[in-house]
Amino acid sequence: MNSSYYSISRALLLNDRLHLLTQIHAEDLDEDTLSDEDWQTLQPLGRILKPFQAVTKRLKGNATDGQYRSAWETLPAMELLIKHMDEMGWIHTQANHPELATGINLAWSNTTLSSTTPWPTTPP
């Protein structure tokens, strides 16, 4: 997930250069380029992934009192990510971003004890 975040962040940073590069090599790339719609999806996708990057970077291999991270460090991070996905689910709906909404719903189902738990029906 972090590699996706880093790739998206870098692509957004180099957007103009990547557009120029794909125009120069359009014949060689054929259809292996990003459409305008793809570029518009990358920005919100980067915002969705950023907290995951921050949490994993914070929790990785930096244990202070033992070999592995403790529940007291992991559980608040999980809560933060669940709240973030909940918020993103209300922003990116099936009506305005169907691809993102599907990914968010899948992530939501993986954070619950039961994969049959539906998306919340009332905003936070």
Description:
By secondary structure, the chain is mainly alpha-helical. It has one domain. Helix 4 packs antiparallel against helix 5. The longest helix has 24 residues. The protein starts with a helix and ends in a 13-residue tail after the last helix.
What is the structure about, briefly put?
With 124 residues, the chain is mostly helical. Helices cover 69% and strands 0% of the residues.
Topology:
Blueprint: H1 2-13, H2 15-24, H3 26-29, H4 36-59, H5 71-91, H6 98-111
Q: How many structural domains in the coordinates?
A: 1
Along the chain, the helix and strand elements come as HHHHHH
Number of helices: 6
- Which structural class should the secondary elements be placed in? mainly alpha
Cα-based radius of gyration, to the nearest Å: 18 Å
Weakly predicted, low-confidence segments:
none
Overall spatial form? globular
Distance between the termini: 26 Å
- What is the β-strand count? 0
Percentage of helical residues?
A: 55-70%
Largest sheet: none
Beta-strand content: under 5%
Please, what is the average pLDDT? Answer: 81
List keywords for this structure.
single chain, 124 residues, globular
